[in-house]
Specification:
Elements: E1 2-9, H1 11-30, H2 42-62, E2 68-69, E3 83-85, E4 88-94, E5 101-105, H3 106-109, E6 118-129, E7 132-141, H4 142-145, E8 149-152, E9 157-162
Parallel strand pairs: 4-6
Antiparallel strand pairs: 1-7, 2-3, 3-4, 5-9, 6-7, 8-9
Helix pairs in contact: 1-2
Length: 163
């Protein structure tokens, strides 16, 4: 597992709120009857996810690494990697600022339709200083997650790693 700390522009926090609105409509439409449907928390969950995706793309841009990424917009689910770098597929995960562990949904991790090589976990700290916020980033290989604890979470089974 690799760990980094970065700064990101504070405006990303607001952009995530705006960009998540489209996704929220799709969540209510496509996931309403699923066991992992968050109901009223869909908006909050999507804002967090979009923020992590924005930060991840910014991270690679600052390193001048070329990548392909899924669109921020759209109401239909996309079962594929969030970021692809030279055929290397990454799934981006959000961790709240108070988070003490990394989580991966058990079913999503083991979904044969979603081929992932590595997870990128992002823990944003939205307190700004001079227009920038801090974030922590962890990278772990897909197979490494199989060694984590498996437990029942709020809605589904998850793999869990204490940070």
């Amino acid at each position: 597992m690799k760990y980094y700390e970065i700064k990101y522009p504070q405006i990303f926090n607001h952009l995530a709120i705006e960009l998540a609105k489209d996704r929220v409509k799709g969540m209510h439409k496509n996931y309403k009857d699923k066991k992992y449907y968050w109901g009223d928390k869909c908006e909050e969950q999507n804002i967090k996810g979009v923020l992590a995706e924005i930060i991840s793309q910014y991270y690679f841009q600052t390193l001048e690494i070329k990548f392909k990424a899924l669109s921020y917009l759209g109401q239909e689910p996309e079962v594929e990697a969030d970021i692809v770098i030279n055929n290397y597929k990454l799934d981006v995960k959000y961790i709240p600022h108070y988070g003490k562990f990394l989580l991966v949904n058990y079913e999503a991790h083991n979904n044969p339709k979603k081929k992932i090589d590595k997870y990128m976990f992002i823990q944003p700290f939205q307190v700004a200083y001079k227009g920038y916020c801090k974030a922590k980033i962890w990278f772990i290989d897909h197979d490494g997650v199989n060694k984590w604890f498996k437990e029942k979470s709020t809605l589904t089974n998850v793999y869990k790693y204490i940070i």
